[in-house]
Amino acid sequence: MTKAIGIIGTLDTKWSEIAYVKTEIERRGCRGFFIDVGVFSDSSLHPEVSAEEVAAAGGPQLADLVAVHAKCKDRLFYRWNPNVTLMRTTVEENTRMGEMFAGKLNRAIGPVAVIPMGGFSEVNYPGQPFWCPEADQAFVDSLRKYLRPDIPIEVSEKPVNDPEFSSRAAERLLELINQKPEHKGRSAQRNSQTTVNE
Fold first, then answer.
1. How far is CA 94 from CA 38, 81, 122, 134, in A?
2. Same domain for 171 and 125?
3. d(CA 30, CA 22)
4. Could you tell me if 106 and 113 are in contact, meaning their C-beta atoms sit under 8 angstroms apart?
5. Residue 19 domain-assigned?
6. How many CB atoms are located within 10 Å of the residue 145 CB?
7. How far apart are CA 124 and CA 76, in angstroms?
8. pLDDT digit string, tens, across residues 66-109
9. Cross-strand bridge partners of residue 155
10. Do 184 and 110 have their domain in common?
11. Which of 20, 41, 74 is the last residue of a domain?
């Protein structure tokens, strides 16, 4: 019986890589079994499990997922490379993310270091396409609002890739690693630190 090797990938962005891997698998006497997890499939490859079948197994129909994509057509996108496109988050989304981050951090029982980094990425600082201080500030404000009061926030004005910011983040991490808890037990809250780069 011929051994089958599963290949999970996205035909809409990785069809050439998938074709290569499948060819190499079959050249070695095995059968390539491809599962398409993409959204737009218009290549010449025919997967054993289609994107429609994958979507249906998870609940929604593929057409519904495509419709969601269409709703975002007016959003700000950035083509990071031929296979990856980024979408800028909004003020509302960043507000929600700040609350979510705080909720997770509030459950910490040991030293906590968070670095939300307020020019938050390589394409999100002055002069770059994703620079939106209002959206970044919304995240920080929401984080402050929902974060436990014993977790202070240290603000840095340096960009995320600035050596000074990296050094400070590393210093803070080492401080937390070496920090001795004030109380023992899983229910004890320990001193924490949050670093924000704005």
1. 26, 24, 17, 10
2. yes
3. 9
4. no
5. yes
6. 11
7. 12
8. 676 677 878 898 888 766 778 899 999 999 999 999 999 999 88
9. 196
10. yes
11. 74
Confidence of residue 184 (pLDDT cuts 50, 70, 90): very low
- The closest of 136, 176, 174, 132 to 152, measured between CA atoms, is 176
The DSSP annotation for the chain comes to -PPEEEEEE-HHHHHHHHHHHHHHHHHTT-EEEEEE--S---SS---SB-HHHHHHHHSS-HHHHHHHHHHTTTS-EEEEETTEEEEPPPHHHHHHHHHHHHHHHTT--S--EE---SS-BTTBSTTSTT--HHHHHHHHHHHHHHS-TTS-EEEE-S-TT-HHHHHHHHHHHHHHHHPPPSS-STT-----EEEEE-
Enter the tokens of residue 182.
């004030």
What percent of the chain clears pLDDT 90, i.e. is strictly above it? 25
Number of domains within the chain: 2
Predicted TM-score (pTM) of this structure? 0.59
Tokens standing for residue 130: 């994703």
- Claim to verify: residue 96 and residue 158 sit in the same structural domain: yes
Which residues 6+ apart lie within 8 Å of 67 measured at CB? Answer: none
Contact 94, 142 (CB under 8 A): yes
Beta strands at 77-81 and 84-87: parallel, antiparallel or unpaired: antiparallel
Residue 52: give the domain boundaries: 4-74
Provide the token pair at 33: 């079994």
Question: Ranked by mean pLDDT, which of 40-54, 105-119, 154-168 comes out on top?
Answer: 154-168
